[in-house]
Structure formats: C-alpha cells, structure tokens
Amino acid sequence: MQGACVLLLLGLRLQLSLGLVPVEEEDPTFWNRQAAQALNVAKKLQPIQTAAKNVILFLGDSECARLVHPLSLHNPGALGCQLTQAGPRDSDLTQCVPSRMGVSTVTAARILKGQMAGKPGPETPLAMDQFPYLALSKTYNVDRQVPDSAGTATAYLCGVKGNYRTIGISAAACYNQCNTTRGNEVTSVMNRAKKAGKSVGVVTTTRVQHASPARAYAHTVNRNWYSDADLPADAQRNGCQDIAKQLVYNMDIDVILGGGRKYMFPEGSPDSEYPHDANQTGVRKDKRNLVQEWQAKHQGAQYVWNRTALLQAASDSSVTHLMGLFEPVDMAYETQRDHTKDLSLEEMTEAALRVLSRNPRGFFLFVEGGRIDHGHHEGKAYMALTEAVMFDNAIAKANELTSELDTLILVTADHSHVFTFGGYPLRGTSIFGLADGKARDGKSFTSLLYSNGPGYQMNRHSRPDVDETKSRDPSYRQQAAVPLASETHGVEDVAVFARGPQAHLVHGVQEEAFVAHVMAFAGCVEPYTDCNLPAPAQYCMPGHLPTFPGTAGRGPAAAAGPCPALTPTSPGLGNSCSPARSFSGLEPPWGLRP
Ligand SMILES: [Zn+2]
C-alpha cells in the first residue's frame, strides 16, 4: 500500500509538475458560473430545525502521550495548582505520539486527496468541505495558551474547558493531584446521550484509553494513567482509577473500537496477535482481565481483535455490545496497516454505525482520526496527511450511511499544529514537492514545513539541500526551524464543519466548549432536555422505521411502508407521525421504547 502510494505520487509529479492549469479556468465564464451555482445553493440553504436522533462527532487528531511544553519549567501550574513533578525537559517529548488537524492540514489533505484522484488538488473538495455550516473554535486550555488533547477534549466533549493534561474534570482540579478529582468531574455528552436511552460508541485509531476517546467516559487528573501500572501510590491510596478500568465501569458503552489491548489484561499475559513478543504483553498489576469483566457485564457482548472477527460481529444482530481492540497500543498508520488483520478508520466507522443504528432512539458516536497528530509530532507530513485523507474517507462513509434529516455530524480538531504550507509552488505540484525557486542560501525548500520539531537539520550554520526524491519519501521529515524531539501543537483556531439538525448553530468564532453544547442541544440531552425541538422529519414521517440506512434508503423518499405499530401507551409519539411533534425531556425523545 505504502509503495503503491509512493508510486502514485511519483506519477502525479511527472504528470503535474509542469504547472498544468485546467484550460477552462482561463475563461472568466468558468469562475462566474461556478460562483453563481454556489450562490444559488447558499440562497436555498435552510436550517434543519428539528432535534437530531443521532449525533456523530469526528475529531481529526489525537494527542501526545507525554507532551510537556518546555515552558512548564517556568510555570508552576496555574490557578493555584502546584506542579508536582520536576520540570520536564525536551526529552520528555519523545514519547509523544499523535495530534491534530488544523486548517493548514485540512488544506494540504484536500490537495493530496485531489492529487490521488489524478487532479491538480486544491479545487477538489473533501467530504467535510461539503458540509454547509462552519465555525472557528478557540482551542486554548484554561491554564495553557497552546493546548494539549486532554484539556481540549474536556471542552468539546463535556462543554467545559479544562486544564492541560487533565481529562473530564473542571479547571478547579490540578494535574497529577488525585485528591483534586472528586467533586470536579464534568460529564460528557456521550454519557448524557446514554442516559437518554441512546446507544453510544467510541472509534479511534489510537488506543481507546488515549486522551480524546477517554474523555468520553473517564475522569482523571493525569491522562497517562492508562492502567493501574501507571498509577502512583498516592493516587491508588486516594482511590483514583486508571483509565482502562473506567472504560469498563464508568458507563455502558455499546461500541468500543481502536487499539489499547495491553492495558486491559494481566501483567505478562501474552498478546493475542503477538504471543511471542514480550513487549506486547498485558500490563495490569492487579491481574484483572478487564475484557472478560466487560463481557460479563453485558449479555450479547462480543470482544474481537482482528478484522475478520469484527466484520462478522458487526453484522450479527445478536451482538448488542462490541469491543474491538486491534493493537496492544495504538493502531498502525494507514499506510503501514496490515489490511488482512486491521481495519481502516472508514471500516471501523461503518461497523460502529451498523451496531449503533439498531437502537430506535438513536445513537452518539465519537470517531477520532488520532494519528494525524502523531504524524505531525514526528515531523512527517506524509504520515499526517495520508491519515487525514483516511479521516475524510470515514466522514464520507458516515455521510453516505446516515441522513442529514436526522443525524447531526460535526467535524473538528482539538487543536492545530505548527505545520505550514507556502512557498508559491506551481499548481499541480505534488503536495510533498518543492516550493518554486531557491532560498537565500541557494538551496531548495519544500512547500510543507514545521516551525519546530525533529525535522530541524542545521549543521554548522547550514541546512541540507533537498530534492524531490528526498521530499517525496514517506519517511521524510520536513525541515523545522527549532530543534525539538517532537513537534508541538499550534495555537490558531480550528474549523468546525457541520451538517444535519441544528448544524446552523455552528457559526462564527466560538469557544471549543460550544461544540459539546451544540451536540447536547441538538440531541435534547442534558442540560437541554427541554429543548422543545420537533422530532426529525425523516424519523417521524409515516412509514419510516429506524433501519440501517442503505437498506431502507435515505431521506423522505425512503419513508415508504407502515409506521411502527404504536400502542396507546406508547409515549412520545401520537398515532400520527406527521406533522412532527415536540417533546420534552420528560418523555423518551423518539417515542419508541427499546
Ligand atoms: Zn498531539
């Protein structure tokens, strides 16, 4: 796969490096017509004013496991919290793995995806580009100007901004101080959706205990407490729980897909996929088998660890709960994935939708393209951007399998990166190619660069030259201005793309916490159970049954056949499905009890 991609890109360069411009673009009529069409679409845009039966949040990114900014040497925490560990050095950054999708990443991924389809690139829209509503999200943490993925996750999943490296707790709690957890917990929209009777799921390309997915279900003052082996003695004494244990016991999650096997199994127990690799064994010192415990909690629960078993389980209607853990820690980059054993993010998204959509009350699904971030931290744009393209493929799949009439989809990132794209390359130049002309040192430079990170290459006041052969290598690190073991996050706003019921609320420049509130309001879950929104038109049209899209079709035209049989005691809906009626939080939202 990787080789094929490289060949494809080499081919693209040969085709496109001459700076070919589509001839029709030289005619003013082309642009006038295109803009007039876009204007027509904009004029007809109508907000979908109903509630959302289903909510899907796509998050482009994931976070460094141990990212600690060098400035923390000089900043003893914020808001009364005391730093409990010695100040970190840059070497602390070396275990950092994944992170996010800023606007520069979206633009570069658009060009890459277009070029992979044989086009110049920038004119070819991503799936997320085609969503009608957009906002900018301010991503800072309460105590950090440039955020990490833990504090940001608390904002967009719980609606409350938190501190750097803390998960699911307000900024009144302090990093690494277990005794500040209790009383400061904040609840995710996923948790509230479950309480409202919806099915819920988490899908990620990182370990499922990682900061972003963890925020959907966990509360912790330290994002790195993956298993009990990571818990310091005082945290154990004070009753703090590791994230893997919280995954099983904090709430009932119907679908869990990603990596992270080793945190679930007893220390030393062989891994199912790598039984002879001592580095991949379970790590739990309490000797608990959390997968077994999770299965015991739910009748119809199934655990799988490879692609074949997952595809079977997802199509088995007797499976009510599905946990798929496909790697001991994070999943492989898309370009390095074993297609026979591991799933793409697109495939995991589809499998999750198949299981979750069986609930007539709807679902909440969190999908994270978590390794975009990791590619950037490594200073390897090829890895980050190929992950971003797969992330967009997953969005396209969800868009295809659900209807905008009843499903709100939001796409955003938790933060950006110091990833830049410039240098006036000719149109059609490979996204991994060179900028036009030479720098003042007489050497070439790539149009993709990083402000800091491992791509720093100065040697005796001089940087190495670069040619296209080097810059197109998937392992190439784009040059960086400042040497760091791991590239850092960036501070600029990230975009929020939206489609579906209440998507029109996504507008302007907002705090990141706004994202959670839009989801809660659209889904009429706490604290908006009195949203007073009508049920989705599609859902309430005569004959619509909440079957999986693709079998029943999409949109009003698909609503053929009888209404669900409603008994006089059926709450929420009257016997007439049309017009759609309002509901309050006192009633089950969609009138159909499971
Ligand atoms: Zn990161």
Q: What is the structure about, briefly put?
A:
The chain is α/β, with parallel strands linked by helices and 594 residues long. The protein is 26% helix and 13% strand.
Describe this structure in words.
The protein has 594 residues and is an alpha/beta fold. It is 26% helix and 13% strand. The chain is built from 16 helices and 15 strands. Strands 5-6-4-3-7-1-8-14-2-15 form a ten-stranded mixed sheet, with helices on both faces. It has a three-stranded mixed sheet with strand order 10-11-12. Strands 9-13 form a two-stranded antiparallel sheet. Helix 10 links the parallel strand 5 (301-304) and strand 6 (321-325). Helix 4 (149-158) runs parallel beside helix 15 (514-523), helix 11 (345-356) runs parallel beside helix 13 (381-401) and helix 12 runs antiparallel to helix 13 (381-401). The relative contact order is 0.17. Residues 1-17, 62-79, 83-99 and 540-594 have low confidence and may be disordered. The chain binds zinc ion. Zinc ion binds at residues 63-64, 67, 98-99, 149, 373, 377, 489.
Comma- or semicolon-separated keywords:
alpha/beta, 10-stranded mixed beta sheet, 16 helices, disordered N terminus, binds zinc ion
